[in-house]
Each structure stands twice: as structure tokens, then as C-alpha cells.
């Protein structure tokens, strides 16, 4: 019995990376039959316990184990929090206690702010839940009995490792406990706080996951909140499962905005800049994130201390960062991308069912989804309550549709859910996966298991997953033993966006009544030339650039049997929107050069360059003349070598004549970290990611043209340089400074080559 308890409890502790297998309980080994407790012999003797704690019970003959159980706080404190805001975690399974917490915290704030002054107070945030689980609450026994129809008291010894009736019955009881905990965490904690907020016109927002002991089911948990969000770090793996958790929840529960705490990080402070955020950010845009929350902005109380207050985590988006003056160039990209991805409905072909087990923080794509398709995770609640079939497609009330429902390789399913799946298949749905053979619950046994087996026999028929792999039922189809490629082929579902098989290109798709919007992102540091085939019929492709807001038709495309094939060329980490909204009238073949013509060089700016650093940031007082472009860190002048801030490069080029209807661009080559450009005194915009190129057509003139390029780097080099000075002479200060005098300097400045060229689209 002790070994049974040890193994069961150990499995309930989740790891920092809670992937699918972390939540699957292994089959328990058989116990010594002589130690198994008969449920009918478990007697509740609470009435014989006095208020002082003395037990007065006339013990019947026999050998008895007296087990005293009770409910106590877990002892876990909230974190991170300031000392005065630190205390025990509240009961996450009680609406009453959630209301009390709201009244004692947010309620007190509301009392102090007149209603007329609360216009900017709109949301209450629940961050990712990382404080472990709980397994009991007030009235848990009565709610359990109401939910499952049997008295849990005789099974309470299972909490302490005793086997009641059998290993199977004890495991089923624990399954029921975990499922009820997850349901109450969703409806009492998240739903309870939501209801409390709504009384004051506030909404809730949360991240629907948690590490180190998440006690809920991530989809149901997020579904009860008004707003939903994921997160990602600018490098590493955090975000790889969290954002799909958020986007799937948003898509199946009909939430228009799906946020992400974006660009969080650890590691060297101030070392990053927007170009380094792009790959990860665009990856999660493709997964469905469409509302960027920059992390982090810290209030700066000290005017005389730069770069100021920071933390060990997050990137600094505050006014004291060197590149804050050029941040608008990056945020314009984010705003355009978010706007586009909030339009219409998400398109995904596969809905991967996560199973009914709890706790659960992610799903599994098994069989693996082929390149060119998208998916969402889906839960039992949404299938049972909201899913119908329209024209053979699994359909949700807000309009989201799927071609196929994929079941995980589990043996269990409750009869209520299987009844709904049977109805969906009968109405025309396609389901892929193994047949369940029993219910996971102790509820209504053995009748529940019998119902599952009976319905499964009707739905799966003679499928054995080997010779027989599909079975028709009503208007629908049940499949098993197939890859996703085979399943999609069988139901004639072509890729939504046929892409290179190396997975170097990711995509997302939004559908509108009269338009199809695809987001396509190059996730590599190489230029990519490829011809994706979009599942669109006879429409003109257009290329929309979120970096600068430009839009143009792509003249070269080919209408194929299954869609529209478009030659594309993407720079390293470049992302574009391919939009289809007009009927195709002119198909000029599939030559890449028609969509991406080769530029014609008009001028090369080889120098000299006059560079003005900012003396207020300890740059040289006088301007510096560069005959050729070079990295600031290679300079022998320490005012340049360790310079952090903006510097302006002034140069010129000559145009003998204007190029007519062609567009004229300036390409800055390479630089670190961001730049804004003026031509002939007119601002033409800025760049923050490759290709560092912008349209200057409206600013040029015949003859001599002047160029001013303001380049800004990070705080890294100055922070390193100041480590070479006595502490009293250092002018920089920051709360968390990881740099030493021998730390590696960061390449900085305009590196070029700078070229002016023309293009005719």
C-alpha cells in the first residue's frame, strides 16, 4: 500500500516542462489482496469525535484502522510579490473565497477610485498558474456525490494510499477527483473571478497554463476567462507549448484577440533589439497569436541613472533604452500584423482532442500533422456543448470549422462524450483514432463501460487498424491506423498552404467573407525562394508588407488543380501577408522575377561619411569622418569603441536623372541595431530587420541627394566600457548588470554596403 501511494503521489507532481506524457498515469501494479479495503467496510465515525478532538467510539469486533482526514491549507504562498502582498494561496476551488479575495484586494482599490476616474481600469489579470494543486475544498464531498452519483467517503482512504475495492476502482476514483478539481478550478476560480469582475464592468485576462503543478485543464480553464494569452521568450523553448495552448483555447471558445506576453528573456540585460525578436514572434503569429504584449516596461524613478532599473528577465521597452526613440518602427509592424490576424476566422483542418484526463496543460499531435496544414487542440466540453456538423465540417457556433477530429491513443472515454461523437459522425463528421473500450470514471459502473463498448462497436465496426482502416457510419467516417497524410488523402483535403517539407516556412490563415489572408514567415537565417500553393480558387495574389505597410499585386501565379501557386522570395526571417480578395484576371506564368524583379543599381554610397555621435552620451564632441564603413567596436577611440546610443551618418549620392515610374530604394546592407533615414531632409522611415531597405521615391531629386542615417545600438558596449573605470567614475547604473570589463562587445553602427537602386513592379 505504501508503494502504491508513493507512485501515485509522485506522478501528481508535474515537471517544469509539462508535455503530454507528464499527465498520463501508468497502469498500477497489483496490490497484496489481503490489504485491499472493502468499501462497504469503511465507516464514517466523525459523529463520535468531540470538539476537543477526543474519539469516543464503541469499536465493533475485528481489526480496524482509524484514519483521520481533514482539510488544511497547502502552505504555498503567492509569488512573485512584494513582502506586504505575500500570503497564503487562496482556495482555487471556491467561488465564495474567490469573491472574498476580490473584495479584499481589487474591491479595496475600487473603493478608493471614484467610478468616474476608472476609465483606464479595464482588466484584472491572472498570470500563468505555477503554485501547485489542491485536492479538496469546502463541500467537496457533497459536490462530488452530486457530480458522479456515488458517495466518495468510503474511498477517502485512497488519498492516503489504501486500495479500496480494487486497483481499478481506486484509480477511477482518483480520476474522478482530478477531473472535478480541474472543473472547479475552471468554473469556480476563473469563472468566479470573471463574475466578480463583471459586477464592476471589468473583464478578466489570463494565461491558461502553468508549470510545477498546474491543477486544471488548460482549454476549459482559459475558456472561462474573457481574455486569453500565451507567452514566449525571445530564445529557448518557453512558448513552444504555451502559445498553442492559448491560440487553441481562443479559437475553440470564439475569442477574437489572443495575446502573448512577448519577448520575455533571461540572460544578458540590454543585449537584445527588435531584429532578434522577430523569428520567435513571427512563429507564434503563424500559430494564431494576434495581440502583442511587450515584456517588460519598468517604471524609471531615477532621472540621473542610466539605463536604470531593470530585472533579470524581460527586454527593456522603457524610455531609457537606447533604441526607445526608434521603437515606433517596430511597433508599427506589430500593430499591422495584429490587425490583420484579428480579421475573420482562423483556418485549421485538424482538431486534436486532448482527452478527458486531468490535469492537462497540452495536447499531442499523434499522428503528426503534415507540413501545409494547421490544427487546434480541442476538449470534451466544446465537443459536447457546442460542436455540430455543417456540410461535412465540424462546426462551432462562432463559425470555426475543422475537417477532421483526431482522438489520442487512449483506451478511455466517458459515454456522454462518445454519444456526442457518435451523433457528429452520423451527421457527417470524420473522426480518426482508436476506439475506446471503457470509461475512465467510477461513475455508473459497470453500465458506463458497457455503453462505451457498445457504441464503439457500432462506430468502429470491423476496423482493425491493419487491413481495415475505415468504417462508414451514417453520413460520416471513422478511421484508424492511418497517418494524417493518408487520412487527408482519403477525404480529399489538400494542404491549405503547400510548403517546403523542411518546415523552414510557417504559415497561418484567416478567412473573411470575401478574402483569404495568409501569413507566411521564413523561420531561417537564409534567403528562401519557394512556390507555395494556397488552397484558394481563381483569385489574384497580393503581397502586403507589415514592415512598411505597402501592398502590391503579384503578377506571376499559376492556377492549379488544387489552388493558386505563387513564386515567393523571402529574406532571412522575413514575413509577409499573401492576400486573395480579387478575382484573377491575368495569369502571367510562374517566373520569380515577375514577382521579385532584380534591382537596378543607381548609386553606391562608398563614402566619405560624416558621423556625429552624441556628446551627452560620451561620444566624441566633433564629428568623425569615415572613408569607409566600420564597426564602432574596432575603433581605438574609446569614446566610439564603447559608445551606446544613436549616431547620424551623413553622405550623398548623385542621380543624373529620375527613373520615371520605377520605385527607388535605399538598402543599408548590414547594421546594428536599428536606423531611421532622411533623404534631402525628408524622413523616409526606418528599418529594424533585414532587409534593411526602404522606398525613397518621394524624397529624391535629380543631381545631388543628401542622406542622413541615424543608427542606434544597445547599452551593452557602454556597460562593458564602464567596468574598466573606477566605480565612482562610472556614469552608467542598472539594477542587474551581468557585464565585466572583458565581456564581449556587441558589433555596432552602419556596416553597409549602402546602395540606391530602382525597381519596377
Automatic annotation (TrEMBL):
Protein name (Swiss-Prot/TrEMBL): Glycosyl hydrolase
Keywords: Hydrolase, Signal
Limits of the Beta-mannosidase-like galactose-binding domain: 645-723
UniProt-listed InterPro entries: Beta-mannosidase-like_N2 (IPR054593), Galactose-bd-like_sf (IPR008979)
Nucleotide-binding among keywords: no
Keyword Phosphoprotein: no
Pfam families noted in UniProt: Glyco_hydro_106, Glyco_hydro_2_N2
Gene3D superfamilies: Galactose-binding domain-like
GO molecular function: hydrolase activity, hydrolyzing O-glycosyl compounds
